[in-house]
Design brief:
With 655 residues, the chain is of the alpha/beta class.
């Protein structure tokens, strides 16, 4: 490429003296390290020694290369006699290290220390792991060392980089197009919306990600349409689609590096180091899961050679940073790719805790199935992830109801900046008698004729907010219970938790370490059930549907609708999710849909997909669904709501 954009360079702590004998420059794979080396060499007028072009390195390699550069014999001996200390930039130390024996590598590092002692300035480029070894060797030899990292491109440089790449790829005229900048910025914004604030620059500013953005701008000539696609608030999760395409392209790029090896082994290039195989290798290296089986290689000798030659490429994979994932983006993508087989389950739970991207990737995987099958740990991981990606304008909803055959029918949905994401699933519990909840206990509705078992509340887990459980039995494991206490700015009606237990089997700890805020928790149980203190404080009567008259049932439905409707995440009024409303009010499913259609005809509701909106007219007559002193009640707004109550009554009375 004939252009260069400066990345952010970050010093390692305590290693920031640019006057040091040796400067180390590290970067994760494909971060622009080699391009930076070439540009620095050009600006300094110094030679750049690219070790990937050498067959091997050893004790004599550097002296020989320096002799060739100065066209003299024993050039290192003349360094101190020069008016200005010369410098040499050496790139691709990782590749060199992978090709030689440990002894040859140690001798090469010693030659670097000797050259530095003779006055030669060295700037060395490589990955962290390799440069750590170099640093130890040089400091042990008494050399002073500075160390900086090629981190990412800052926001304005991202645009400059993309523009240069688009021009380099043969579309310079596109940059001056009327809608080019709009499309470019929309793509970057869509990508930025896929990650958390603290990882936006390091991911979006990663060179291969920007390469993919440039490719989209080159391939798609209609930049106006491109901009509109990524700016629209449609149900299509295009930001995740773009993110997935980018990550797919990275894996395909890595696979292409092994084409020479596949030819040497006599195997089709497409059969080796596939994206799926790369993901398995990464999980194996980083977390210790099983290595890929490599059934496509039947010759034991070829298998051994492949594994040996594979290692340098795997160590330099752009998805990793030494023994860790290079970003939560790569971690979440890899977990979603292996979602059905990733074990142990604790790995999946950790990924879910780290970011909302696990849910985003899993919920947008193209599939002919309308629903996926998951187990309890997978449910907990997805629930954790959907909440990890939640913010003030992005409310989440998770619901579970009994399946007609076995297990549970589940639904998760969240509003992202680009629109809603949703996932339907069937959950198969480990035990047929109860559901175990080992993940978050918030933004959750569970309605079942089985029991519910809540795993011990460790690691910050708490009950609520926004939790509704209806079951025949309940067991809360552990020595204590703790409730989430909403902030002072929260509205209590949005934070309620309620347990409705229809049977007599209730096993609760005798200690509540963090009590719920007043009026935010109810425990409804039959009269004959004995509760231990302090749970008696939260006891309310459990009423059966048959005991509630139609008018009371209609009013209770409207109370619950008012309580659940909120503006968070909705730009056009207060709304709630249908699945949440269905699980938390007294009307049955078919009856509920008929009531909603009736209210829509009356102009009180607007139905939009899974969302139930109160119309502006209905919101003028808003009331509190609770008996809160000083707030409007349904009786205060009876002129508007009375006819609606009577209509719902009639529908209930006629079944």
């Amino acid at each position: 490429m004939n252009f260069f954009v400066e990345p952010v360079l970050v010093f390692k702590e305590g290693l920031d003296d640019l006057a040091a004998d040796v400067i180390l420059v590290s970067a994760r794979g494909a971060a622009g390290k080699s391009r930076t080396a070439a540009e620095l060499a050009r600006r300094a007028g110094a030679p750049l020694w690219r070790l990937e072009r050498d067959a091997a390195v050893s004790r004599a390699a550097l002296p020989h290369a320096f002799d060739s550069y100065l066209s003299t014999v024993n050039a290192l001996a003349t360094v101190r006699s020069r008016s200005e200390a010369p410098a040499v930039l050496i790139d691709s130390l990782d590749e060199a290290r992978s090709r030689v024996s440990a002894q040859s590598w140690d001798e090469f590092l010693q030659s670097l220390a000797n050259a530095s002692e003779q006055g030669l300035r060295l700037v060395l480029f490589g990955r962290d792991r390799t440069l750590e070894e170099v640093w130890l060797k040089l400091t042990d030899a008494g050399r002073t060392v500075a160390w900086m990292e090629v981190s990412h491109f800052p926001v304005e440089s991202q645009k400059t980089y993309i523009d240069g790449l688009v021009s380099h790829r043969g579309a310079p005229a596109a940059i001056g197009g009327r809608h080019y900048a709009e499309a470019r910025d929309a793509l970057l914004s869509a990508l930025a919306g896929s990650v958390t604030d603290d990882t936006v620059e390091t991911f979006v500013g990663y060179a291969p990600v920007l390469d993919a953005v440039a490719a989209v701008l080159v391939d798609e000539q209609n930049h106006y349409k491109l901009a509109q696609d990524f700016r629209s608030r449609s149900s299509s999760p295009r930001h995740i689609d773009v993110l997935r395409d980018i990550l797919d392209s990275l894996l395909i790029r890595e696979q292409g590096k092994l084409e020479p090896l596949s030819r040497d082994l006599g195997l089709p290039p497409q059969s080796l180091y596939t994206p799926e195989e790369q993901i398995e290798w990464l999980w194996h290296d980083i977390t210790g899961t099983s290595a890929p089986k490599l059934h496509q290689i039947v010759d034991p000798a070829a298998d051994l050679e492949y594994r040996k030659q594979l290692r340098p490429f795997l160590n330099d994979h752009p998805f990793r940073s030494e023994q860790h994932w290079a970003s939560v983006v790569f971690e979440a993508y890899a977990a979603a790719s292996n979602f059905e087989i990733l074990t142990p389950s604790t790995l999946l739970l950790e990924v879910g805790d780290h970011s909302g991207l696990l849910f985003d990737f899993v919920s947008t995987v193209p599939s002919e199935q309308k629903s996926i099958y998951i187990d309890e740990p997978q449910f907990a991981a997805l629930h954790s992830s959907i909440l990890a990606g939640e913010y003030s304008g992005s409310p989440a909803n998770v619901s579970l109801t009994d399946n007609d055959q076995l297990g549970f029918v589940g639904h998760m949905e969240v509003v992202r900046s680009s629109g809603p994401l949703a996932l339907n699933f069937d959950l198969i519990p480990e035990n047929s008698t109860h559901l175990t909840l080992a993940g978050p206990l918030e933004s959750l509705t569970v309605v079942t004729e089985s029991g519910i078992r809540i795993a011990p509340l460790r690691g910050g887990r708490a009950i609520g907010p926004d939790l509704y459980l209806r079951a025949t039995a309940l067991r809360l494991d552990g020595d204590d219970a703790r409730f989430a206490r909403t902030g002072s700015g929260s509205t209590p009606e949005f934070s309620d938790s309620r347990f409705e237990i229809e049977g007599k089997s209730i096993d609760l700890p005798s200690f509540i370490s963090v009590a719920p805020m007043p009026g935010t928790f109810e425990l409804a149980v039959p009269e004959e059930v004995d509760l231990i203190y302090p749970w008696t404080t939260y006891r309310v009567a459990l009423e059966q549907d048959d005991d509630i008259d139609p008018q009371s049932k209609a009013i209770r439905f409207l109370n619950k609708l008012q309580n659940l409707a909120r503006t968070h995440g909705h730009t056009d009024g207060r709304a709630t999710y249908f699945m949440k409303l269905q699980g938390r009010q007294p009307l049955k499913s078919a009856q509920l849909r008929n009531v909603l259609k009736f209210m829509e005809k009356r102009g009180a509701l607007r139905l939009d997909g899974d969302l139930v909106f109160l119309t502006p007219e209905a919101d003028k007559h808003r009331f509190s669904g609770k008996s809160v002193p000083g707030q409007q009640t349904i009786e205060d707004e009876w002129t508007y709501w009375g006819p609606i109550v009577r209509g719902i009554e009639e529908m209930i009375a006629h079944g």
